[in-house]
Amino acid sequence: MQVKDAVTERFRELCGQRKISPNSLAVLSGITPSTVYSMLDPTRRDISIVTIKKLCDGLEITLGEFFSTPAFDALEQEIK
After folding, report:
1. Backbone phi, then psi, for 45, in 5-degree steps?
2. What are the helix (H) ranges across 1-80?
3. Is position 79 within any domain?
4. Is residue 80 part of a domain?
5. CB 27 within 8 A of CB 57
6. Residue 61's domain spans which residues?
7. For residue range 33-56, what is the model confidence (pLDDT) as tens digits?
8. Residue 59 belongs to some domain of the structure
9. Per-residue pLDDT at 63 exceeds 80
């Protein structure tokens, strides 16, 4: 799994737990829905940490809480 895929899956998981749509996440986070849908698009590879932070703020969680999951711990090293 790539980092971007782990980020996308984590946001899908958190939205599912809270029973909110990507549009609702955008509103809560103060960003455009197109930014959220772009982040969720599997063909897009980049997402900024600033966007992740805004989304976490909207979900009222810290970056530490967001990244503290086995999926992130299991990612392969990027530098080979």
Report:
1. -105, -20
2. 3-18, 22-29, 33-40, 49-59, 63-67, 70-73
3. no
4. no
5. no
6. 3-71
7. 999 999 888 888 788 999 999 999
8. yes
9. yes
